[in-house]
């Protein structure tokens, strides 16, 4: 064995023990320090051996926890069919947002020879962390993630990224981090919609949303609105239901009352800029309960709508290019995985389109 490199000898040792079943699925490999002492070698030699075991699919490395025998190893042959896995984490999907991103990413990954594992967090930070842990344990090579509402910063996400694990944010992101992101140009889109509303003759516009603080997409939409409409604020920015997966009757009723109180206090409002589609639906219900008509009495605009009927949509809306967002995110992630180029601080802002529906006059 004198002519065999030391790292290869360590590799062969573990390869044989996995192949013969001495080490079973999910068994933990000794730490680098333990292996250095056992084989009397340097840390770099140990790292090279473990890296090769990982690259060949025999072990999975989990940042902060160690290396484990891959659960899919075929003990009889000692061969692991190579599956290039990518994780996708979204808060949720529905007919207005998420489905196009999901299908776009799946299509692009399939074309590149990858398999996708999809997780939903339902806007829960605890579920988000568990999803990340599960995906890494399953052996994914990288993760595309939509962060949960209001998550300004996550030590867990950043720690995983800084360990060298490829991550790309989609739709939402965390400011002041170097994690690459693909999102809509929410600021410019919101600014353009507000400008067109004012040109069409709307004079008193209310911005209605859940708390935008900490959610990059909502923050930029609100900032874009305010950059054009700088009159005295008559807004609602504390709705609860958009951030809750399971919308209770009590929460819906409470949010409806908030919107109704706004109109009772400011009857001059002639248009609502709803930050999200569900908020637009809530606003429409609140107006109906007040006996106000759309668009005759009050106009409504929003982001996104039914993807199947976007050209004949009921709501006038800003239509995000979700398919392109998904494709760009895959390209960044796979480039990072393949080390073709550095992706730190890469930010892609995608323009959106405005569709005229039945909830405004022609704008």
Provide key terms for this protein.
single chain; alpha/beta; Rossmann fold; 363 residues; 6-stranded mixed beta sheet; 17% strand; 6-stranded parallel beta sheet; Arc Repressor Mutant, subunit A
Which superfamily, in CATH terms, is the homologous superfamily of the largest domain?
Response regulator
Distance between the termini: 78 Å
The averaged pLDDT comes out at 88
The structure class reads alpha/beta
**Low-confidence region ranges:** none
CATH secondary-structure class of the largest domain: Alpha Beta
* SS elements, strand count: 14
Radius of gyration equals: 25 Å
Provide the CATH architecture of the largest domain. Answer: 3-Layer(aba) Sandwich
Number of domains: 3
Could you explain the architecture of this structure?
The chain is an alpha/beta fold and 363 residues long. It has helices spanning 6-19, 32-39, 43-55, 99-111, 125-137, 155-162, 186-200, 216-228, 249-265, 277-289, 322-337, and strands spanning 59-62, 66-69, 85-90, 115-120, 143-145, 167-170, 181-184, 205-210, 236-239, 271-274, 299-303, 316-319, 347-350, 353-355. The chain has three domains: 6-69, Winged helix-like DNA-binding domain superfamily/Winged helix DNA-binding domain (Arc Repressor Mutant, subunit A); 85-184 and 322-351, Response regulator (Rossmann fold); 186-320, Response regulator (Rossmann fold), CATH 3.40.50.
